[in-house]
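Hi all, a correction to my earlier message: I attached the wrong file for alpha,alpha-trehalose-phosphate synthase (UDP-forming). Here's the right sequence:
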Amino acid sequence: MMSRSYTNLLDLASGNFPAMGRETRERRRMPRVMSVPGFLTEVDDDQAVSVSSDNPSTVTTERMIIVANQLPLKAKRKEDNKGWSFSWNEDSLLLQLKDGLPEDMEVLYVGSLRVDIDPSEQDDVSQYLLDKFKCVPTFLPADVLAKFYDGFCKRQLWPLFHYMLPFSTDKGHRFDRTLWEAYVLANKLFFQKVVEIINPEDDYIWIHDYHLMVLPTFIRRRFNRVKMGFFLHSPFPSSEIYRTLPVREEILKALLNSDIIGFHTFDYARHFLSCCSRMLGLEYQSKRGYLGLEYYGRTISIKIMPVGIHMGRIELVMKMADEECKVRELKQEFEGKTILLGVDDMDIFKGINLKILAMEQMLRQHPKWQGRAVLVQIVNPARGKGIHLDEIHAEIQESCNRINRMYGRPGYEPIVFVDRAVSIAEKVAYYSIAECVIVTAVRDGMNLTPYEYIACRQGISGSESCSNVRDPKKSMLVISEFIGCSPSLSGAIRVNPWNVEATAEAMNEAISMSDGEKLLRHEKHYRYVSTHDVAYWSRSFLQDMERACTDLLRKRCWGIGLSFGFRVVALDPNFKKLSIEAMVSAYKRSRSRAILLDYDGTVMPQNSINKSPSKEVLSMLESVSADPKNVVFIVSGRGRDSLSDWFSPCKNLGIAAEHGYFLRWSHNGEWEICGKSSDFGWMQIAEPVMKLYTEATDGSSIERKESALVWQYRDADLGFGSAQAKEMLDHLESVMANEPVAVKSGQFIVEVKPQEVSKGLVAERIFSSMVAKGKQADFVLCVGDDRSDEDMFEIVSSAISRNILATNASVFACTVGQKPSKAKYYLDDTTEVASMLESLAEESDSSPYIEETGDSSRSEV
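and the right structure:
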């Protein structure tokens, strides 16, 4: 029978997660994943709200679970064809990063194998790898693997992340939803393997690379508080490129379920943050040197740290090459020649042919190198079924043959094209004899070739060898400015690989440079490479992951949303949803009440085009404000004319307009000016500045109020508008430094308003006035949704201690939306606010109030 996880694939990929129920049947420790090729046996679905494992581990120490597309293992079929032999892949980054983790931290791996394991052998292999190597293999059905790796990863994500758009339908490069569905299914299969071994209370999970970008959602959905990091080893494209991906938001939201997201360079991180800003409306902040994204109460850390090499492994391989005297053999082969070296994977983005053309240009422009300079180009086999590989290979071969025919002579070929798998020992030998390494990739996530070259040119310290380690330790690099390691190698000659002439001149400069200069550059590079190795990288990432996860553990967490819209909301433990029933109960017991309501986003939906209140809202507010025990205010940033017109049916409703600069206690009352200054001469200074930015920022506008000026950029380009707002804020603060005003930034606005005017001061004025008239409030309801309302919440929370509220007062400070706030309660949306007002209206006494001694408290206050 086909598995539930397999048949629900379309639901998963299209955004409909199935109901997540628990099975009562007992599971084996390493359940079988595949019974026949292409079919999955039954596995338990994940449960959205679970915060503990189905099979909790007895391990109490911290563990690291590293999840990647492939395990750091080598597999070989035994000679008798009965079973497999496995060994560690010592060159795998996943294995090497263990050196930076604490010695007492247990490390487990989840990933796939490079070989096909027969279904009948999978159980035995799984158990053996777990016991022997602490590895948990994920077996993907052949059809899923082909669509997942060769399809979505290599033909859609890989080109897009390297800035290549599918302009034509040639070779099926356009987005294919069936490939996306296979990508989702593959990520779910990796997730199921993680579930088998995880102890969510103690374990850290570190997910690697673009193959598993939606895995964080699966894990976070099952374990809300799990400690999880993600590191992207490829470039992340600019928002103009990334936004063409049809599943762009699904991937972004999935990544944001991690606690920390790592990138090799600031450029990649900046592009990611720009995508989050433009597509999800999220803004990042820098706190004490750390970048962070606020996302539903969680702070997702952004880590920028280029990976390094394993110095011990390089030295070991150098000794191997030395023992085999490979360096001596190569020196004899290229005696009297100046060696330039290129080591690249066979990939469309490595710019191999650009390098070869630059070599041709150098020989043409500088004939002295003809017969002397040799470019050795090693091409590693392609890692997968990438695009245009055959065409690229043929183009490279043709260029090599043409140049060798033109500039070659007996005993000399200017291009040596090594088109085969090269052992790491042989590669190290080539590094050792090369005068310069050339990297001309047009886009590459990191590229560790320059690091390896620098380490090899340093030689083996404290040992004699047939390679003559007493030679001066010098190296030169010509590298593309589009690769991840470029920023960290300041002594390299950086080039635009598309400019063949400039690259040729850089190659000539590199091999013509004096030995003293080469030595200085080498020493500078070696200091960096030797100290920023792979252990330094993994240790730094773990430290930042621990810091990023600490805050989450102190908060209450719960999951909301479906499919890849799922996210965890993390809020203060004391922050909870307002119980309307409990609030109404306190309302009925109280004798003097203060009710303060924001308007936009609270009483009126933020995205509503018609901003005037509905008849239903007016009726409810009229009923509540007519109760003689109540003092009810609309506290808004809007102007007094529009608010007065809209709420004219509510005769007893108070209005605080323009954040409290104007205040009126009832419809028939006079407007009071609460600001200390009525001189608005400063507007003549601020408005020209705002006009300057409005003219330069398409989609922005100026709103002139009686007491304030507001520059709005909600309809402008988000990135440009935000940048202009920051610049304007600095500009206005500078020119308004001696004026009695405050310059504030808000959500898509920059506002200039009189000092000492805020919603918090409105609340304080109302409470104090009620005390002065002997009507001290014993019930307070304060509801708002944005940053300006936080001032009200802050005053309300301290009002009892300041004796402006009764000591036994029932206080309900409530924000709209589940988000961090100074309020202690929340309601989900304006619909729930309306329901709350309806409940209050039903319990309010709107009968005429007959005064025994003078005016009503409302008119007196």
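Sorry for the mix-up. The CA atoms of residues 284 and 293 lie 5 Å apart.
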